[in-house]
Design goal:
It is a single chain. By secondary structure, the protein is of the alpha/beta class. The protein has a domain of about 160 residues: Rossmann fold (3-Layer(aba) Sandwich). The protein is about 35% helix and about 30% strand. The strands form three sheets. Strands 6-9-10-3-11-12 form a six-stranded mixed sheet, sandwiched between helices. A four-stranded antiparallel sheet has the order 2-1-4-5, with helices on one face. A two-stranded antiparallel ribbon has the order 7-8. Strand 9, helix 6 and strand 10 form a beta-alpha-beta unit. The protein is globular, with a radius of gyration of 18 Å. It starts with a strand and ends in a 5-residue tail after the last helix.
Amino acid sequence: MLEIKNLHLEVENKEILKGVSLKIEKNEIVAVMGPNGSGKTSLSYAIMGHPNYKITKGEILFNGKKINELDPSERAKLGIFLSFQYPVEISGVTVSNFLRAALKNAKNKIYSLIEYKKLLIKHMNLLNIDSSFKDRYLNEGFSGGEKKRFETLQMSILEPKLAVIDEVDSGLDIDSLNIVADNIKKIQKKNKMGILIITHYDRILEYIKPDKVLIFDKGKIIKIGDKKLVKEIESKGYKDF
């Protein structure tokens, strides 16, 4: 579904990714780990089409289509979703209104108010999110766990083919992590989406078990393995790789 070929990426004339190649199939979970500054988040921005991240060489293919030149909204319409590590607050915009606008743009379909409310409640019930959540301003006054749960609600209602999840476990206590991880598993089971999950820690990968683990360092993939590789990292750190 997603294929990246020899990707080179730069920001402000500094090369960040230096020849990254990888594939993600439908319903496959790929975990990306590595030290700070290794290029993990830059990879997620490249996939989503961040305008400040310039591809200097290589290709990104999604379902066989080259998407190097597509803007983020066009990639979203193809079925790519990016869950942010630090979701932004938007005062005055309710969760309900934001999701309705996002759904309209991503699906290119206008839902009646009644249709939309039924759809929203259906997805909130699936993820065990209280209905009062929909009337709150976007991420304003949200705890870290609530912000990440809202990211999963977006993911659920937009039904992407590929979810790029950037450090969703950052700043979560164990209870919030359990809830967020369970929500991601529910969504994947329903949609059979591919997942690229970026993390520093083994903890979330105990819940969202990866089919493949990639270790990044200095803008390159330096090791590919399975879940056992995560245990090696936990016990030894990155220095042995």
